[in-house]
Amino acid sequence: MTVTTDLVSYEDALASYDPVMGLEVHVELGTRTKMFCGCSTELGAEPNSQTCPTCLGLPGSLPVVNAVGVESAIKIGLALHCEIAEWCRFARKNYFYPDMPKNFQTSQYDEPIAFNGYLDVQLEDGEVFRVEIERAHMEEDTGKSTHVGGATGRIHGASHSLLDYNRAGIPLIEIVTKPIVGAGDRAPEVAKAYVAELRELIRALGVSEARMEMGQMRCDVNLSLMPKGSETFGTRSETKNVNSLRSVERAVRFEVQRHAAVLGDGGTIVQETRHFHEDDGTTTSGRVKEEAEDYRYFPEPDLVPVAPSREWVEELRAALPELPRVRRNRLREEWGISEHDMQSILNAGAIDPIVATIEAGADPVSARKWWMGELARNANESGRSLDELPITPEQVARVTALVVDGSLNDKLARQVIEGVLAGEGDPDAVVEKRGLKVVSDEGALGVAVDEAIAGNAAIADKIRGGKVAAVGALVGAVMKATRGQADAARVKELILEKLGVSEG
Ligand SMILES: Nc1ncnc2c1ncn2[C@@H]1O[C@H](COP(=O)(O)OP(=O)(O)OP(=O)(O)O)[C@@H](O)[C@H]1O
Ligand SMILES: [Mg+2]
Ligand SMILES: [Mg+2]
Fold first, then answer.
1. Which family is annotated (predicted)?
2. What is the DSSP string of 424-476?
3. Rounded distance, CA 195 to CA 245, Å?
4. 28, 307, 396, 416: least surrounded by Cβ within 10 Å?
């Protein structure tokens, strides 16, 4: 199918249609070994060095279920308010593709481990939107193919393909939403917020780092349109493996516009998979989608059913961490900041470092100030995330303590942080080595103040005459003379005292 129709504008599309979305998110679990064999899941190894007869599907091999994989699936299910199956099975999803040497993927079909849940997501204006979860099931990842030669580097036109089966058999949890209706023109925002919230949740559970840029979490975006007023779903398209939050948002938006164009022209949408292109935000046709029956699903005969005991499930439920959205709202209130500020903190990945810094003794305002200011800037400039910076929350807390007890002012504190980041050691060591200390010796300060007054007689007269605002110039002179190592507030007090002027 080729669509040559011009796209309909997003606004026009939504004037005539209601979007229906379905999001399938695959999460690679952070288990040490694969789902059905003992091969390592460590990234970056030589291609095909982490394989065995089981994950290569050689005759005679037998799979064994990874218990940590099952436990992670239950945790995810519980955090999504799902029911946990008392008994469930794996199923073979049969299809032929070179990245899957067994010729089937071990998955779950009509007996998923978790089903019927929901995830509440918070939109930018603070409104909460509930996304219903159909199921979360266990499966395994496929190998990785790289198409080389030819002009395009894509499978069509490539001269050959390279296959690496290190990824084949790594545990995946697929989380599938029920059709999401009622999002209206906020469908792209809802999709993005859902994936973002799910990612936070997965990280909070500690079951995966869920780094989308590394393929540890990827989203298939299903979309269809219904004419306004209708309640019958249209045919969906399925945009595969979208791998960033921004792309999820753009893929929904583009598909809304494309569907509207096809339908508006009297055309029909074919059920197919599509590929998203980051460069221009469009999607192009992949393959016409198999119906479930084409996969010839049947229960996996080589694996025993999974029947998690209720005691185990309840133990896992009791140990669940606070949900990220709840925690965020609690922190937002404790810190007295706006939703918008909280969003910036989230986007910067600064929540955990800030919380850890507060736990190490800093006050919330300073902890936020350093992580969102100096440290965020440094991370940005060096292309690192905050948690990759060579400074610990304890060290940041120590710097704030030195500011509070008056040993450092903000300017000196910045230099201390700079020193820690440069590998000069702990804050105290940097203070020592660089000789950074606020001049708090009142005698020395007094001399510097006297000199500043003497050297700027005209300004001093102005201040005496009532122009208190001019004191800034004298404070500046003292700070300069002490190479920034004085407490500016104390300097100002001293100057006014000596000039016999009171502020205000
Ligand atoms: N008409 C529709 N419009 C939009 N979304 C839909 C529609 N029908 C179903 N969906 C959603 O699409 C998703 C379908 O995912 P599901 O895993 O059930 O099937 P699949 O895509 O056929 O299978 P898979 O990709 O795993 O082989 C679900 O999120 C579902 O809610
Ligand atoms: Mg699916
Ligand atoms: Mg699908």
1. Belongs to the GatB/GatE family. GatB subfamily.
2. --SHHHHHHHHT---B--HHHHHHHHHHHHHHTHHHHHHHHTT-GGGHHHHHH
3. 7
4. 307
Residue nearest to atom 14 of ligand 1 (CA): 22
Report which secondary-structure segment, H or E, holds 150.
none
DSSP per-residue codes, 208-250: ----GGGTSEEEEEEEEEEETT--S----EEEEEE-SHHHHHH
Q: Any residues with Cβ below 6 Å from ligand 1, and which? A: 20-24, 134, 176-179, 220, 222-224, 233-234, 236, 238
CA of 214 to the centre of ligand 2 (A): 20
pLDDT attached to residue 286: 87
User: Rounded to an integer, what distance in angstroms lies between the CA atom of residue 243 and that of residue 455?
Assistant: 63
Handedness of CA 89, 210, 353, 333 (dihedral sign): negative
Write down the pLDDT at residue 1: 44
Q: What is the ipTM of this complex?
A: 0.98
Which of the listed residues 232, 236, 256, 291 should we mutate to test ligand 1's pocket, taking the one with most ligand atoms within 8 A of CB? 236
> Maximum CA pair distance of the chain?
98
pLDDT, tens digit (0-9, with 9 covering 90-100), for 435-477: 887 776 777 888 889 999 999 999 999 999 889 889 999 999 9
How many A from CA of 215 to the centre of ligand 1? 21
pLDDT above 80: residue 3 = no
Domains for the chain: give ranges and CATH numbers.
Answer: 10-312 (no CATH), 348-434 (no CATH), 442-499 (1.10.10.410)
Q: Tell me, what's the pLDDT at 96?
A: 87
Residue bearing the CA closest to ligand 1, atom 20: 292
- 238 C-alpha vs ligand 3 centroid, how far in Å? 6
Q: Which residues surround ligand 3, an ion (CB under 5 A)?
A: 24, 220
Mean pLDDT value across residues 322-336: 93
User: How far is residue 137's CA from residue 191's CA, in Å, rounded to a whole number?
Assistant: 20
Instruction: Tell whether the model's pLDDT for residue 114 goes beyond 70.
Output: yes
What beta strand segments (E) does 178-322 contain? 217-227, 237-242, 272-277, 282-288, 298-299
At 308, list the tokens: 């998690």
Average pLDDT for 253-274: 95
Q: Which of 17, 21, 24 to mutate to test the pocket of ligand 1 (most atoms within 8 A of CB)?
A: 24
Token duo for residue 156? 């069509």
Kind of pairing between the strands at 104-107 and 272-277: unpaired
With tokens 């925690």, the residue in question is 327
Mean pLDDT of the chain: 92
Q: Which of 56, 128, 140 is nearest to 91 (CA)?
A: 140
Highest mean pLDDT among 25-29, 321-325, 470-474, 500-504: 25-29
Beta-bridge partner residues of 295: none
Q: How far is the CA of 173 from the centre of ligand 2 (A)?
A: 10
